[in-house]
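WARN no homologs supplied; continuing
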Amino acid sequence: MAKQTKQQTALQTTLFPFFPEYVNSRYAGLALAGFYFLLMLAVSLKYHVIGDYNVETDFYWSYVPQARHILEGVIPIEDFHGPVYPMVLALIALVTKDLFHAGVILSVLAASSSLYLIFEILKKLTKSDVALIGTLLVAANTTFVRYTYTAGTDMLFMAFITAATYSLLRDEQLNWRSIAFSAVFAALGYLTRYNGLSAAAGIPLAVVFANPFQQSWRDRFKTSGVFLGIFLVAIAPWGIFCLIQKGSFFYNRNYLNIAYEMYAKGKVGWDQYWYGEAQKFSSLSGVIFSDPGLFVTTLIRNLIDHALSDMGLLLGWQVGIFTLVGIAACFRFKPTAKALSYFIVGGAFFAVLLLVFYGERFSMLLLPIYVALALKTLTLPSFAQHRFWKVMHVGGVIAVVLLLWTGYSSLEFNRANIDSGPQEVVSIAGWFHQHFGDTEDGKIVLARKPHIAYYLDMKLEMFPYVNSYDELVAHLRKSNASYLYFGLMEAGMRPQFQKLLDPRSAPKELKPLTYMTNPPAVLYKVDLGAAQ
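OK structure emitted
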């Protein structure tokens, strides 16, 4: 009882005692989200003019073609993700007329929506001022800002799963409509990225073991069953479509990403794996039983590695250390049923991530949960008894310092990276359209990355995994490619052809049309007749 009293005292402590009437307003979250949306939309559209060669490669390579198919009335089935993102992307593109800008706007909108939901969730778990600090820590986070202006599935996925979690936690008593919304949003998350299946496990587990609605065991299982039933109904149309077209209700090939993590990472290159080693696997069970011992030990290793990476790379250790203390504090100061539910949902997602290689963006859904744990540390009674200026206790001062520290780190990183995409592609495409207009639209360009094809309005042919120039020419002939683009990415991934960076030494089958020197990049016209 004494511990519970201390916890209640900590939760009643004011961390940020300024403008209380505005922080407590029902519109505070909307105002915060709205301001973030306007700010980041302006920044993103001005400075992020082309996607980078990392995450946004998938955008140009996969989501753009799928969105175009959808606009033509065809629903494609992709091997690694569901249909929701390209559908929403296509819908926004009806207004923007440009898929890249549609992707950026979608990310900014989803990020702002996530911030509103995070603020509302944290208000359910603690006081409004604590929720404000927590939401600002998320908004200022380097990874969160980065993927706000990045065209990709990360933010839309985060918005859907956060909405599913909020729907679970919003009511004090069981509300079947909220459970239904939670299931539908979880389904949308799953149909955006298949690791959203974690929500279909995490939310029922939270209902059963955290018991946020104070139900009997029988009623907890009933509530979980209703959630799962609605989830399955929501994903059924897509599952049936996949069953008819691909022979599997839960069709996807993400087991290949798992296989890379288990058996190839650090041993073979990325291209070498996908062109060779990946062909050895045809199912998840095949991946698991290829080497069960290595599979299990990799999971255990990833448990530690991912956790440490989350603290250092996702949060930054200045916040991560308080998160670790917050986890330990949960054993002494038992979290409320709602807070425990939140942690269980996050734990289920963390467990799924152990199957694949680490990336901060994959863990971004956990960011507000880690922040909530850090805030638990800063609201402990030991902090509350020390005050500054008679209004802020030491936890509040530390929270403000952490916010400024996080914001500065984020500003420095994103200022240097927001325009890190291949600007040379835009310049070369601009020259090309100025001289050729749209006369070459739809032709084939060979490149290692899909960006140039998007900006030239051409079809991409992947730069082949070959070793000799004769093999390259044979592939150009076979693919009927009209153009070849060669830049730093191509040179890095196919070093045997680095001479192609210099248009002065171009072989007779490749005629340089335009080039840049800083960074070096060349667009060649393919002329196989010259080889005759």
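The two ends are 90 Å apart (CA to CA).
OK
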